[in-house]
Structure of IS6 family transposase:
Amino acid sequence: MNYFKGRHFQQDIIIVAVGYYFRFSLSYRDIVELLRDRGVSVHHTMVMRWVHHYGPIFKALWRQHQTSHTKSWRIDETYINVKGHWTYLYRAIDSNGLTLDFELRKHRDYAAAYHFLKRLLTTNGRPDRLVTDQYRATLKAVKHLMKQDYLSKSAHQCSKYRNNLIEQDHRFIKRHRVRSASFQSIRTASATLSGIEVIHALRKKTRRELSLIGFSAVDELKAMVPA
């Protein structure tokens, strides 16, 4: 499938623009300036449209390319401001710190936790250990999934100390939004965060594998796109 068919700019230009935006704490106008220095003239609203369009696409492609992971998982959520209101980014990583899944939700409640955990378990199978915090809605969702046989009772643990790994991992997402404008809708926030999370996941994987070449967001995105 050609994801770049009908665009006014070449695939390489679009990937460079969104790759830089997802990787670094840059504004749309910063990306325009970087492209202008390379002889490419584009409006900042065009870059915004690329980010919103390709974030979910790269998330879907990343899921197809996911490799094996450990069976010890950490689940937590962090706060994301969307137009003056708090929303909640549910995230899951394994014991090596590699990203398993993520999802932005309007509310931090039972329905949000259940939906996220069920998809995580359906996609990745049953873990040997699932570490969560002691938030009541999350615990209720875990118990329901146990009754449905998605998770064994012995696998679940509530441990603030063990969950420090994912709480530290939240920092990249928080730090990335420091210079950028706040999100204006849940749709655009979800699309943008999809791209940011994918780049973060790919970078962690590259560092884990001790690549001699180093990490390049642009090269990683190009490698995911079907020829």
In short: The chain has a mean pLDDT of 90.
